[in-house]
Fold these 2 entries.
Entry 1:
Amino acid sequence: TSSSASSSSSSSKHALLGQGKAVNGAPYVRLSKNTPPAPIRTLLTEHWGLNAPRIVISVTGGATSFEIPPRLDRMMRQGFETIAKAGSSWIVTGGTNSG
């Protein structure tokens, strides 16, 4: 991965810890758990050129193996694909690609 570090206002402990492109070319941003939404929105809309979303979907889970029935897995993937292609939403994950 390539990465470049940035930081937020020096008057705050909130931090943008780094950003870059993953091996597959997908952009990512690494944040402090205390980073407020405003600088994230600015990064995504003004610097990455994304349109502001009508909805933000947060996908969370444990970082352990999690088995779901194949039919449900397929339905969820198709649903997220449809949402992503609509272009009016952001899907946010922890980015661990596990669980």
Entry 2:
Amino acid sequence: QQQQQKQREQNNIVMECVKVYWKGVSGVVEQLLQDVVHGLPQLSRDKSSHRFEVAVVVGASEGIGKSMCDELAQQGFCVIAGCLPHDPTTTNDKVEHGGGKAIVPSSLCSGKVIRLPIDLRVVASVRRFFKTVCAILKHQQHKGNHHEKQQHQQQPQKSPFKLRYIIQNAAVMMCDFNLCESGWEEHMQVNVLGSLFLNKLFIDFLNATNNTEELEKQQEQRKEEEQQQEGVDNDRMKRNFDENSGKEKTANNNNSNDDSTHACRLNPKCDVDNDQSTRKVVVFAHISSITQECEALSLKYLLQSTNKHNYSPHRSYIQTKLLGFLAQRALQLRYANSGNQTTTTNYNSNSTCLKKKNGAVVKQFVSCDPGIVNTNLYRHANAVFQITKALTGSLFMRSPLQAAQVCLSPLLNERFHDDHHYQLDCSPTPPTPSPFVYFQHGKEGTANLTTTYTDEHVLMLLETLEGWIRDW
């Protein structure tokens, strides 16, 4: 029986290797045809439209992530690259703290890349990276001349930095068995749970920021209404004084003019044609793998993979890439169903739209397949693959730069830009967020998974994953 058990395990290992490498070979053939027929996408170099826009790329020590940072910097983004702590290009003192306020270095500007340490295997490292990014995004600039600064009369203004992209590129592939401090195997920790934990932190940050901005807008609206009401009261007092003084004719003329002024001021139809709202779009991008199409999801195996005797490097990579893809889809389903935007409308007694404001933050979750790329991700593969890759990789695989362009070309599309031209009407229903999008070869496609997963199924998976990281 022991011999039969060992034989079955060996057969399973062989089948898992065949699945991975066969999928890789078929993927190479498919992407070669795509690149020859359609060509590789080209990115524009318009830096002006992305000034003060922040792109966070996790897994940027080398390969696709590093090329993404360089491309985004050429696009004019302010890029924050999350690299491994042992990477010599990373630094821990890019954001200093003085007097309780974050001081952003001069290197953080349009077209620049700063590298911060992050290790998804360590929960504390993820938190430190997140806090550093928040310090940059919350940075307060001061306006005023030199004399005012000496008198400490600076007036704080909102941070010019706007979070636009969060790209989860970090991954491990077919590595040796290793348990992280959280108790999870390294594939599960890096490819799924660490990335999900960082996404959840940024989601909470965006929600809190949106609520703060909404309160500020409400306070500004109250001040405007009080000023308008004060103006109405002053005009009434003036008319009463004129009437008491016997200037009825002049008062009547003033009444007609003032009434028309107040009607213009309070009638929303005077402003609704010119009123526009800004829809803030923050894109959460997950870099997927074609191996997610090899087999169906097995949470039982992922739980058992914490035991070395049950661990398979090939199957762990397949399962975690599939689970990461489904988690990304579940996040989009949750925030699309719960409503990404908060639009409020006030009505008067005649059901006429008086005022409408939009404190919208649209969180769009997408997944991008870069194809078969010639990177160091395959360093744990067997010797036969390593030799084959060294001889033919530059001919048949995409380079990291080509893969970065394939992933970024759909993300930089106008569909994910802030909608500055969305015309407001009196409808209380906000625009419907777009569904989960999967990009393959730089174009919108469909993942050919071996099993169909319903929306209810993936949402239950997300709740399970959130339960596993709740104590983090």
